[in-house]
Design brief:
CATH class of the largest domain: Alpha Beta
Radius of gyration: 21 Å
Mean pLDDT: 91
Strand content: 15-25%
């Protein structure tokens, strides 16, 4: 049945599609599901590429959300069906190549007024789905984009690739964190971890005139860090001795989920310095909870309690700040798009592996346990 509020689609859209459905812990299945039907004020986007994000990996490997779901939120594709309500109030049109943004805050609540957008209840809703409980949907051939996240949709310029569009969301999270840290030009900042996230931190900081000291466990990653603008590099095991014989750090960004790296950074930053946590996204369980979890679910991926022990005097007497940054800031979308599409931050060298949709489980496995030659992993439906 034809609806007056829908434009005619660019192509014949099938009734069913392939999607990778999460059915339980480490249980991803390629299934045939209905193509989402859009309503007033919505889009249907044919997915071209979707990045693999550590956030989804944790949900898949630890079973932190109930199945079934279709994950994948670093998504770019082409608009193939659009509500006339959208064309009436925006510049979006059929056939546009777009990058999607699955979280948009209300901009009115207590958290939004304090710029803590990731704590906003509206923000916590996921506005893109390929079916089931909305979870991003990028590991599917089509996704439905709901009205409340339309302000986050960005057109991809002709010269730029879908891969670059899909990288807007992770770059947004990094730019948000850098602005939260707010380093000054000339500051010495440690970036611990030089995977795709750490390398983007290194480049954005270098563009702001910051002197970056990059560390990692792999020499191959340190070589890349130098290409991305690191002033100095060293293996993580050599950091303490290096700092002892050089000037102190002004701040540090911990881009790996290592408690030891946090404690080391707190010791090494000068008084008044800052340590920003970016990768500590698994909540610690008490010993009782952890034991109960092991009995009920003997998974090798069970969450463990944190062994973190903090010298509070370093926070009080030395006036060091321990801060966190999580997820994205919708208000930075335009700045992020300029940064990526101008290629001042060229994300193309970060994409090391492309997987077809039917090999999504293998893509997740590689991203969860990266090799020396792997960086950003993407899935191409």
């Amino acid at each position: 049945m034809f609806h007056l509020w829908l434009n005619i689609p660019v192509l014949d859209i099938p009734k069913t599609m392939r999607a990778v459905v999460y059915r339980g812990v480490n249980d991803l299945r390629l299934e045939t599901v209905p193509v989402p039907r859009i309503g007033p004020g919505e889009l249907l986007v044919k997915v071209a590429v979707c990045g693999v994000c550590p956030t989804d990996i944790k949900k898949i490997q630890h079973g932190t959300v109930p199945p079934p779901r279709i994950f994948g939120h670093e998504t770019a594709g082409t608009i193939v069906k659009i509500s006339s309500l959208v064309t009436r109030h925006s510049s979006l049109r059929l056939g546009d190549r777009v990058a999607l943004h699955h979280h948009v805050p209300c901009l009115k609540c207590h958290f939004c007024r304090h710029a803590s957008f990731a704590q906003c209840e509206t923000y916590k809703r996921t506005g893109i789905t390929a079916g089931f409980e909305p979870a991003g949907g990028g590991y599917a051939e089509f996704v439905r984009v709901m009205p409340f996240v339309l302000p986050g949709v960005v057109k991809i310029p002709v010269r730029n690739s879908f891969e670059e569009g899909a990288m807007l969301e992770p770059v947004n999270t990094i730019l948000k964190a850098v602005k939260r840290l707010n380093p000054l030009p000339g500051d010495a900042v440690l970036v611990a971890g030089q995977g795709p996230i750490g390398l983007m931190f290194t480049k954005i900081l270098q563009l702001r005139g910051v002197r970056v000291l990059a560390t990692d466990l792999l020499e191959s990653r340190l070589k890349l860090a130098r290409k991305f603008g690191a002033r100095r590099t060293c293996l993580a095991s050599e950091l303490s001795s290096l700092i002892t014989h050089h000037s102190s750090l002004d701040s540090a960004i911990i881009a790996v989920p290592s408690d030891e790296a946090v404690l080391q950074a707190l010791r090494l930053v000068r008084g008044g310095g800052q340590v920003l946590l970016f990768a500590h996204t698994k909540r610690a369980k008490s010993k009782v909870q952890s034991l109960k979890s092991k009995v009920q679910n003997p998974s090798p991926f069970s969450l463990q309690p944190s062994a973190f022990s903090l010298d509070l005097a370093s926070i009080c007497l030395d006036e060091k700040d321990l801060i966190g940054s999580y997820s994205s800031d919708f208000t930075l979308q335009a700045e992020v798009a300029r940064l990526v599409f101008s290629r001042r931050l060229d994300v193309r060298p970060l994409i090391s592996h492309h997987f077809p949709l039917e090999e999504t489980a293998a893509a997740i496995a590689l991203a969860a346990k990266p090799t020396p030659g792997s960086l950003k992993i993407v899935v191409e439906p």
